[in-house]
Design a protein that fits this description.
single chain, globular
Length: about 575
Amino acid sequence: MQTDSPNALSRAKGSRPEMSHPDSVEAERWRMAAELVDGFDDGLNICHEALDRHVENGHGDQVALRWLGKSGETRDLTYADMRALAARFANVLAAHGLQPGDAVFGLMGRVPELYAGALGTLKAGMVFTPLFSAFGPEPIRTRMEIGSANALITTASIYKRKIAAWRNELDSLKLVLILGDEAPEGCVALGPALDAAAPDFDTVHTAPEDPALIHFTSGTTGKPKGAVHVHNAVLYHAFSGRHALDLTPGTIYWCTADPGWVTGTSYGIIAPLVNRVTMIVDEAEFDLDRWYGTIQRERVEVWYSAPTAIRMMMRTGAEAARPYDFSSLRFLASVGEPLNPEAVTWSAKVFGKPFHDNWWQTETGGIMIANQPGMEVRPGSMGKPMPGIEAGIIERAEDGTLTELGEGQVGELALRPGWPSMMRAYLHEQARYDKCFVDGWYLSGDLAMRDADGYFWFVGRADDLIKTSGHLIGPFEVESALIEHEAVAEAGVIGVPDETAGEVVKAYVTLNPGHEPSAELERALRGHARKALGPAVAPREIVFRETLPKTRSGKIMRRLLKARELGLPEGDISTLETDES
């Protein structure tokens, strides 16, 4: 990879702190993982491990991706097909002057071109960033600005509605590829470009520590964080896919997560393909009969989904599942938010197998704690640390020192750094990255406890992040969008419990002079937020207040808003300056 090229990823790589463990220790620790990939004599590339080597080893005729269209159409792409399509993508990018290290963003629904585009980007030695297609214009622009996007793969509809108005203000953006045979002015139609490109491309021999993926995650304050992951992460994608999800060659596997989120990339693209499974990709959103029918018709063996979807299934009752045959299922897993014990028990009765909860984060890049195949499932527990992962429950004293807690004690969930898929940087935010690592621990920000048998139990989040339907939302981003409306003076955003989504976003706002609270204004503000942020991020409810609780430094106390909303103890309010009237 060209580390001296003037792009954002090269700069991020140059500023990244060195890994804390020597290469010999890492090689020994992840020997089992290394046996699942081939690599090059002089490097490692995710696309080579996911596609190229399987074709070279005689498995090109196996179906890699079975696509189920919204309207009932299907499309099978073999490993040879996917390799050729990824090569065409790489050639298109190179033909438009993009270089190894450049940043390519993907913004579209679950269509084969998105998956091939991600792999083609990696094949060309470039860095891929997936974005959720339901994002509004502002979240998209913010992330593309932080990531200094050089190219974007999207649809004409998304481009016209969410990007065209500001596209020319983003100087780094040189190429916009539009799905289909036609494109708006200034963009390139992807269909003809792929048809004209050669189906062969020599995979770039990237080094293990070269950036490969950027996944954005929101914070409680400030802009979204761009977590940098490297090609060496494929070791852990392969290992955890095999040992946490039971992905073996030939497995029929369905991950319902969208590639716009880290689960849909790590375990919806990379881990399954590296382990040579046949992936089911459904373009449509959740529909109970469609999902049950897909499992039966496609003979799905391993199913990875989200607690929100499981709760939606539970609401329809076991009766709705009775007409379907689930005998093909051998392993069910869930991630995104804690899986309640009732869901584990219910799934065991309905599907004949329980859902196995697991825990990880955007920053970890892969599953850290899991109810692995063959383990006793304790409903409500996220399981035990994966082999090679050392986890602890940590208490942080006022002076910053850390103490590891014993069984049954609640503290911050922490991990010993050094696994291959660990993030290597936050883009342009060295200090923010450094704060994650203290005294030989990676601090997750989540609260948990460990029982006497080594099972870990999720307790809550140590900050204000909101998890709704598996989506992680930063309050600051929502507040900023609300304040852009002329009527809003201040805004405070929290998550409140919801039976189906886990949490939903609720906003408290104060108004500027000349504006009065009304049902009409509340609807207008929600509409404004939906337009700016997308329905997945916008608040479900907005409450008007005369004032909001703030610290003396002017920071709105979301913790206090949430405590009052839920009737919880308010805790220390010594820093409170103003309060609600």
